[in-house]
């Protein structure tokens, strides 16, 4: 008992005396007892359990989200890494945890640091879903608001930095926390210096490359939990595979990290149906494609790959690029016939196939992804011709325009045509059909695209249609790359890490190099084959490291 | 008794604040606010500022509060549930404004009757360590003979009370001063707390020490003392067991001897 602090209420009785003395205003019995009842309603009578659930009857939480929140509060005491795979609702878990602390009166002020592009989305989610009165930081705002949301980049700069470091926060949350994996960065140093009680770090990729990254993240929450820097390096080295091998290390990590994967959650219930849609070029199209393929113009072989990919997407995309080259090189004569040839093409086989598919799908919502803006416009036009309404979506839109387009899509039009998934941003669970009109050469982008609709909140099976044109560059990518490493079937969360391990900085560049440096289609095929087999090899060796969940 | 029926609670809340109930049907409550309640709840100081400046009366708003979730679709209004911001606004409004009272037992008598003073205090006790829980204690103290009564609010609920003294009644002056009466109540609560088993606090202290040891493991002999001290403070802040009392509300009640 002697080690428990006791805090008494020293003001009440004096205030009561002075009210009586002044014959001040007294409550009547009804209101007096209503206030008492109100207090009984808002207290938390037990140490454990989530009181916040009663406060949020309009949110349907998934089991793994509730247990993640319980675990973070009850066994991790409010300092945890939430490392669920993309799309399982880390934000929901974090909101629930914060709400619980607020309901219990343990958190009064909180600082939430998220990427700049996500600030308004966080504000909205916390306000609408959780009734947490969070505000975005604005110029000249005081940082000592109740719940304030800002980007890490703003917060760490003067004069904000100094102000923030003065304040003792009850709760700090950092989204996309893998940005803190390096302990020598400004970000890291800033976050370590924050005064905090509870702290959540959110990331889908807690260990991207090196094992020391997890050490650095954990040292923000619980310094010493994994020893100190030197002893950690000495014991475990740098290889992230050690997580799997060392049971003790894994156990330690599980004490501060929660990781749900699609495989261990009920989200697995909604399936992905993948369908490859093969399209044949018409005669005219094929001959234009071949002329371009064999042409030698004033452009690098890298650029030519781009033009070929564009032609597989739409006449417009390719035409515009070639036109630009010609404008820049006035004497250029070789391209003119090809440009004319493309200009005369009546349609595009792939777009017409989209129209056919749309008729088959009926009146369900469909999202179409293309790599090119020209194709986006063209698709919008051709759908319009067939009485199908659509809205465009681009990464460059302002937040408000994005929201508006999303609203239109949800309530008024059947199709959304997007050029960019934007690793973050719109969630479109109300839609379950996705057309990959052309495939990105970066597999992570593909996963982000699918993640827009196949995520927490989706209650239908998801249909993915991948378009590719026979006997073109698209066929190679489809059959030699994507289908071989089974990319469509499953989420490969750690593909990033695998590529890094293989020393492949960007898949896109790697592919372009293969094409540019090969002299024949045969050579391309062999090289692609080699690439896929090494990726597959790493994947099987490296299956989802199930660290972090029990 | 905590709030069990939200519709009833809202109905009572607004009628006690003299707002007209326009309609109350199947979990949909429509009320006409008074100017005072509009000012307290609707957060539109500029409206009232200008209306008054122009010498107008102003028009308080109406509220539609839906407690029946099945009516949410068909009716336009605010859905009130235990987490809704409006409910918490009302609750906070109550907690802030209804702290002090002085009440008299209402009795019909034709001969002189004495009413005895009671100090009634409702206290919230919070236990905070690794986790937190609260407990509410309602105590009454007879300010003449020093008798104490627990669960005082439940007892008071059975007695008709009013803000003015009934005819033929007179009050007895307290022998125990308010301050010392309050100290007696505090003492009782302290005893109650001391006699409890505090396993929760032991567990918290255990976790506290464990984390402090872990932390020391992280730092080399003398590097970065400032950072380490900051982190030690954070750990203490998070685990140090604390018990606090806070008075919810209280006042003087003049009651007849039963």
From TrEMBL, chain A:
Organism: Oceanobacillus bengalensis
Protein's recorded name: DEAD/DEAH box helicase
All copies of domain Helicase ATP-binding, residue ranges: 71-224
CDD domains: DEXDc_RapA (cd18011), SF2_C_SNF (cd18793)
A GO molecular-function annotation: helicase activity
InterPro entries the record matches: DEXDc_RapA, Helicase_ATP-bd, Helicase_C-like, P-loop_NTPase, SNF2-like_sf, SNF2/RAD54-like_C, SNF2_N
Keywords: ATP-binding, Helicase, Hydrolase, Nucleotide-binding
Helicase C-terminal domain residues: 353-503
One Pfam family named in its UniProt record: SNF2-rel_dom
TrEMBL record, chain B:
InterPro entries: YqhG
Entry protein name: YqhG family protein
Source species: Oceanobacillus bengalensis
């Amino acid at each position: 008992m002697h080690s428990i602090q006791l805090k008494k209420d020293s003001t009440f009785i004096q205030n009561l005396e002075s009210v009586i003395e002044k014959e001040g205003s007294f409550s009547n019995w009804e209101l007096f007892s209503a206030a008492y009842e109100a207090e009984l309603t808002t207290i938390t009578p037990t140490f454990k359990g989530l009181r916040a659930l009663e406060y949020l009857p309009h949110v349907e939480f998934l089991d793994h989200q509730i247990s993640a929140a319980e675990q973070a509060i009850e066994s991790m005491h409010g300092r945890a890494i939430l490392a669920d795979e993309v799309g399982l609702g880390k934000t929901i878990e974090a909101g629930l945890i914060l709400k619980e602390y607020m309901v219990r009166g343990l958190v009064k002020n909180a600082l939430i640091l998220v990427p700049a592009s996500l600030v308004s989305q966080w504000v909205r989610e916390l306000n609408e879903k959780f009734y947490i009165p969070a505000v975005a930081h604005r110029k000249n705002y005081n940082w000592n608001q109740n719940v304030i949301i800002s980007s890490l980049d703003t917060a760490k700069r003067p004069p904000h930095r100094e102000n923030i470091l003065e304040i003792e926060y009850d709760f700090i949350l950092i989204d996309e926390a893998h940005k803190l994996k390096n302990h020598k960065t400004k970000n890291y140093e800033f976050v370590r210096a924050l005064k905090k009680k509870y702290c959540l770090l959110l990331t889908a990729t807690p260990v991207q490359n090196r094992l020391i990254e997890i050490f650095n993240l954990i040292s923000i929450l619980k310094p010493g939990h994994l020893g100190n820097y030197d002893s950690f390096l000495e014991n475990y080295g740098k290889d992230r595979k050690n997580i799997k091998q060392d049971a003790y290390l894994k156990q330690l990590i599980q004490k501060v990290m929660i990781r749900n994967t699609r495989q261990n959650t009920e989200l697995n219930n909604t399936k992905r149906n993948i369908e490859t849609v093969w399209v044949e070029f018409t005669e005219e199209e094929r001959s234009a494609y071949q002329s371009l393929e064999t042409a030698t113009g004033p452009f690098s072989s890298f650029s030519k790959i781009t033009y070929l990919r564009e032609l597989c997407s739409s006449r417009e995309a390719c035409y515009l690029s070639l036109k630009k080259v010609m404008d820049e090189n006035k004497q250029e004569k070789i391209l003119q016939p090809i440009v004319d040839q493309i200009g005369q093409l009546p349609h595009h086989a792939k777009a017409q196939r989209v129209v056919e598919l749309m008729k088959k799908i009926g009146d369900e919502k469909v999202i179409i992804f293309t790599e090119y803006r020209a194709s986006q416009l063209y698709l919008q036009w051709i759908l319009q011709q067939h009485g199908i309404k659509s809205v465009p979506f681009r990464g460059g839109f302002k937040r408000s325009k994005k929201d508006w387009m999303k609203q239109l899509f949800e309530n008024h039009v059947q199709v959304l045509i997007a050029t960019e998934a934007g690793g973050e941003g719109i969630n479109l669970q109300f839609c379950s059909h996705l057309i990959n009109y052309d495939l990105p050469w970066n597999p992570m982008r593909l996963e982000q695209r699918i993640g827009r609709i196949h995520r927490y909140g989706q209650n239908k099976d998801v249909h993915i249609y991948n378009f590719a044109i026979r006997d073109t560059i698209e066929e190679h990518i489809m059959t030699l790359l994507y289908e071989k490493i089974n990319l469509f079937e499953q989420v490969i969360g750690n593909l990033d890490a695998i590529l890094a391990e293989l020393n492949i900085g960007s898949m896109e560049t790697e592919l372009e190099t293969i094409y540019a440096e090969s002299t024949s289609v045969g050579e391309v095929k062999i090289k692609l084959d080699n690439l896929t087999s090494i990726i597959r090899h790493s994947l099987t060796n490296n299956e989802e490291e199930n660290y972090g969940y029990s | 008794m905590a709030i069990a029926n939200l519709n009833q609670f809202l109905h009572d809340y607004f009628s006690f604040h003299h707002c007209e109930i326009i309609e109350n049907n199947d979990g949909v409550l429509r009320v006409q606010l008074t100017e005072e309640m509009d000012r307290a709840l609707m957060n539109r100081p500029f409206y009232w500022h200008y209306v008054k400046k122009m010498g107008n009366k102003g028009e308080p708003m109406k509220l539609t509060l839906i407690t029946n979730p099945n009516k949410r679709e068909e009716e336009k209004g605010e859905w009130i549930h235990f987490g809704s911001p409006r409910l918490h606004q009302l609750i906070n409004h109550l907690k802030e404004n209804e702290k002090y009272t002085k009440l008299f037992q209402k009795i019909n008598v034709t001969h002189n009757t004495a009413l005895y003073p009671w100090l009634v205090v409702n206290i919230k006790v919070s236990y905070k360590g690794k986790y937190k829980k609260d407990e509410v204690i309602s105590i009454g103290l007879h300010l003449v003979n020093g008798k104490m009564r627990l669960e005082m609010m439940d007892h008071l609920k059975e007695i008709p009370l009013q803000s003015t003294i009934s005819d033929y009644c007179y009050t007895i002056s307290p022998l125990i001063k308010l301050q010392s009466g309050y100290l007696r109540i505090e003492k009782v609560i302290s005893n109650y707390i001391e006699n409890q088993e505090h396993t929760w606090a032991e567990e918290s202290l255990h976790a506290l020490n464990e984390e402090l040891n872990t932390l020391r493991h992280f730092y080399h002999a003398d590097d970065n003392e400032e950072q380490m001290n900051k982190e030690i403070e954070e750990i203490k802040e998070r685990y140090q067991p604390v018990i606090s009392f806070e008075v919810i509300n209280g006042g003087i009640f003049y009651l007849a001897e039963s």
